C-alpha cells in the first residue's frame, strides 16, 4: 500500500525514533509498504518518520542511481536493504559533497558534506544482526536516512544564508502549496 509521505514542518520529522522489538505489530507489511511508497515517489531511501512513525526503521534501494546501460562500479544496482534499530558506530574518511534531496522536502536540493565511510550495526527484516562498512553513495544514502531516525533533515547542514533563501519554499511545502507526483501529508494545509 502506498502511504502518504510526511512533509517538512511536521513534528514527527524532528523526533528521535524509538527502537522496536522483533514482534512490532505489522512489521513485515510496514516494510513492504515503505518500499512501495519509496518506489512510487522515485526515491532511493525512506525512513519511518517520513510516513509518520517515530521508530528506528529505514529502507534503501540505490538502483535509482544507475542509469540503464551505465556501468555499476559501486554495486548500487543490487543494494536493497532494511535497517532496523540502526546505530552508526564509526564515520571516517574524507568528507565529500553531494547534492541531496528528500521526499519530505520536494523540489529542494542542497550540497551536503558527509564522511565517505561508515560502520553501522543494525537488524535486517529477519531480525539478524549485522555490523557492516559502507562507503561512497551507499554510505551517503544510509547517513541521510539515519539522520531521519535521529530527527535531523538534510537542510540542517545547509548554510544559514542558503536556509534563509529557502525559507519561503519550505513554508509553502508545509502548507501544501506545492505539486508533487506522490501522496503527501502536509502539516499546515488548509
From TrEMBL:
Similarity-based family: Belongs to the polypeptide deformylase family.
Active site: 145
InterPro entries: Peptide_deformylase, Peptide_deformylase_sf
Cofactor: Fe(2+)
One BP term from GO: translation
Enzyme class: hydrolase
Lineage: Bacteria, Pseudomonadati, Bacteroidota, Flavobacteriia, Flavobacteriales
Co-factor: note: Binds 1 Fe(2+) ion.
HAMAP family recorded: Pep_deformylase
EC number: 3.5.1.88
Enzymatic reactions: N-terminal N-formyl-L-methionyl-[peptide] + H2O = N-terminal L-methionyl-[peptide] + formate
Keywords from the named record: Hydrolase, Iron, Metal-binding, Protein biosynthesis
NCBIfam families membership: pept_deformyl, PRK00150.1-3
Biological function: Removes the formyl group from the N-terminal Met of newly synthesized proteins. Requires at least a dipeptide for an efficient rate of reaction. N-terminal L-methionine is a prerequisite for activity but the enzyme has broad specificity at other positions.
Name of the protein: Peptide deformylase
Gene3D superfamilies according to UniProt: Peptide deformylase
One Pfam family it belongs to: Pep_deformylase
Metal-binding as UniProt keyword: yes
Species, as recorded: Croceimicrobium hydrocarbonivorans
Protein's UniProt keywords contain Metal-binding: yes
Annotated positions binding Fe cation: 102, 144, 148
CDD domains the record matches: Pep_deformylase
GO terms assigned for molecular function: metal ion binding; peptide deformylase activity
Amino acid at each position: 500500500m502506498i502511504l502518504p509521505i510526511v512533509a517538512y514542518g511536521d513534528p514527527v520529522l524532528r523526533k528521535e525514533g524509538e527502537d522496536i522489538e522483533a514482534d512490532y505489530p505489522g512489521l513485515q507489511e510496514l516494510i513492504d509498504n515503505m518500499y512501495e511508497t519509496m518506489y512510487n515517489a522515485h526515491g532511493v531511501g525512506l525512513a519511518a518518520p517520513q510516513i509518520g512513525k517515530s521508530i528506528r526503521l529505514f529502507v534503501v534501494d540505490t538502483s535509482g542511481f544507475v542509469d540503464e546501460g551505465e556501468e555499476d562500479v559501486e554495486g548500487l544496482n543490487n543494494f536493497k536493504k532494511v535497517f532496523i534499530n540502526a546505530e552508526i558506530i564509526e564515520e571516517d574518511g574524507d568528507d565529500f559533497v553531494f547534492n541531496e534531496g528528500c521526499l519530505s522536502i520536494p523540489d529542494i536540493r542542497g550540497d551536503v558534506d558527509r564522511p565517505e565511510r561508515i560502520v553501522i550495526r543494525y537488524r535486517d527484516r529477519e531480525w539478524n544482526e549485522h555490523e557492516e562498512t559502507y562507503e561512497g553513495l551507499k554510505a551517503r544514502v544510509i547517513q541521510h536516512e539515519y539522520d531521519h531516525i535521529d530527527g535531523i533533515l538534510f537542510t540542517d547542514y545547509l548554510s544559514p544564508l542558503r536556509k534563509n533563501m529557502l525559507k519561503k519554499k519550505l513554508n509553502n511545502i508545509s502548507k501544501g502549496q506545492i505539486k508533487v507526483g506522490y501522496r503527501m501529508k502536509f502539516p499546515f494545509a488548509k
